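Async update (no meeting this week)

Hi team, since we skipped the sync, here's where things stand on the single-chain job. The sequence we agreed to prioritize is pasted below, unchanged from the tracker. I ran it this morning and attached the output directly underneath so nobody has to dig for it. Comments welcome in thread, and please keep replies under the output.
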Amino acid sequence: MARCVIVGGAEIKDYESIKKHFRPDDFYIFCDGGLFHEKPLGVSANLIVGDFDSHEKPERECEIISLPRAKDDTDTFFAAKEALRRGYSDFLLIGVVGGRLDHTFGNLSILLMFHSKGANAMLIDDFSEMEIVDSTPKYIDDSYPYFSVINIDGSPRGITIEDALFPLQNADILPDYQYGISNEPIRGKRASVKVNSGQVLLIKVKKAQ
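Output:
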């Protein structure tokens, strides 16, 4: 099945960098204010969802799901759950971090939700690529100047980082001491991250801010 791309309304400056991640058969869900990114991204919405408090409800031939403003799910979280309901299991999220910190934290939790459902997901912004890591190693080649490993659910144990400037072996990173920030792959090698139990957030930094 094709990958689902979910587009939120957070700021995007480097559209060309984002567009390099797109695939010809991607299915695009635009969430309310994410519609402001549609033209700069050079793609068309397959599905639009939102309560339209950030963007006027468009008149389109594509499917539109109108949501109430008073609801438990944000527009982006609703889009994620709707995509799962439709059978998608591979996701790219853009325009969902930055700006309001509350929305950023809420949208990062979508990665955990996808992971709990067995789905593959990556979240990207102008500077970085983010994904959940568990016992299956994830790799960072030396084209990324930095990477960070962050505890975002409180339960990971036995974190191992190899072929990096600051390696770890079977360590814990606790929520109140996030010391896994700004590591670096060893030049000429691929750094790796894995967790014995639970999961962590891996942020691969493409360029310094």
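Quick observations from my side:
The chain has four helices and 13 strands.
The longest helix spans residues 101-116.
Reply here if anything looks off.
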